[in-house]
Design a protein that fits this description.
Number of domains: 3
Number of strands: 4
Structural class: mainly alpha
Number of helices: 11
Strand order of the largest sheet: 1-2
Order of helices and strands: EEHHHEEHHHHHHHH
Largest sheet: 2 strands, antiparallel
Protein name: Myb/SANT-like domain-containing protein
Strand content: 5-15%
Helix content: 55-70%
Length: 284
């Protein structure tokens, strides 16, 4: 969805091209599925990974702060899309991932908001990836935090726990070696052990979740040969049309996976909609 634009960061501009915008969404979608999005945003490691890959692929100097800034732009675009989809007179084609409106409504909307033209009666590129990357954040309202905020929150929580434990230890070290103080020490040590056991259990669960996500991804790899076979055997379309549909699905892996789970009738409908979308042009 994103087009080329400049984003300002400490007096410097970093230009995001459309391929770069697609790449950031693809990588962050993978990171989210791997469990590297613990709350409302991603871990710092994910931003570093994106910045490194974009720098290498496009021969630019991309930094994590540039990725963070661009993600905020993506979230704003997602907010616009959500509002448009819910407006009266606006339809939604889930197969083509496209907001559909009549010519009259189109003219009225573009007249009031010229920049909304790119969202209307056009297939929304990377919509599925955007849903994974920012969709949940916008729904819960937790999209104002940056990756720096998340890391600070995690570090603050760890420091708070550490300080509390130190305070408990100092308290039990004071006073005489009475039976009461000894009991207190044992109680504090027990609480510390319980905390450690709980931390280990939580860490194990998180590692298990990540492993499960990675395993699920590996099992759900797209078989291009099988996709080609299934597309080309659809009846009622010429070979060139089916070939174009296959090429489109290969370029959009999430669409391809969704296509493969549809039955024969739904696949045929999808190809028909694909043909209509290719030839669709709003009349003025």
């Amino acid at each position: 969805i994103s087009t080329t634009h400049n984003e300002k960061c400490k007096g410097k501009h970093f230009t995001w091209s459309k391929p770069m915008s697609h790449m950031i969404l693809e990588i962050l979608a993978e990171e989210a599925l791997k469990g590297n999005k613990p709350s409302s945003t991603f871990r710092a490691e994910s931003f570093i990974k994106v910045a490194t890959k974009i720098s290498q692929k496009f021969n630019v100097q991309c930094e994590p702060k540039h990725v963070d800034n661009h993600l905020k732009t993506v979230k704003k675009e997602w907010g616009i899309l959500t509002k448009l989809k819910n407006k009266s007179g606006f339809g939604w084609d889930d197969c083509l991932k496209m907001i559909t409106i009549s010519n009259d409504v189109y003219d009225e909307e573009v007249k009031a908001h010229p920049n909304h033209d790119k969202y209307l009666n056009k297939k929304l590129d990377m919509y599925e990836a955007m849903t994974i990357v920012v969709g949940k954040d916008m729904a819960t309202g937790n999209y104002s935090k940056s990756y720096v905020d998340v890391n600070l929150e995690e570090n603050t929580e760890e420091q708070s726990i550490s300080i509390e434990n130190e305070g408990e230890y100092e308290e039990t070290s004071k006073g005489k070696e009475t039976s009461f103080s000894s009991a207190q020490k044992r109680q504090h040590r027990k609480r510390n052990r319980m905390y450690e056991d709980d931390s280990v259990e939580k860490l194990s669960k998180k590692m298990g979740d990540v492993a499960f996500a990675i395993q699920s991804l590996s099992k759900n790899q797209l078989d291009v040969n099988e996709l080609y076979t299934e597309v080309m055997k659809i009846e009622g379309f010429d070979e060139i049309t089916l070939g174009d549909a296959f090429d489109h699905l290969v370029q959009h892996e999430m669409l391809a996976k969704a296509f493969m789970v549809k039955n024969a009738n739904l696949r045929k409908i999808w190809v028909q909609n694909f043909m209509n979308q290719r030839s669709y042009r709003p009349d003025y």
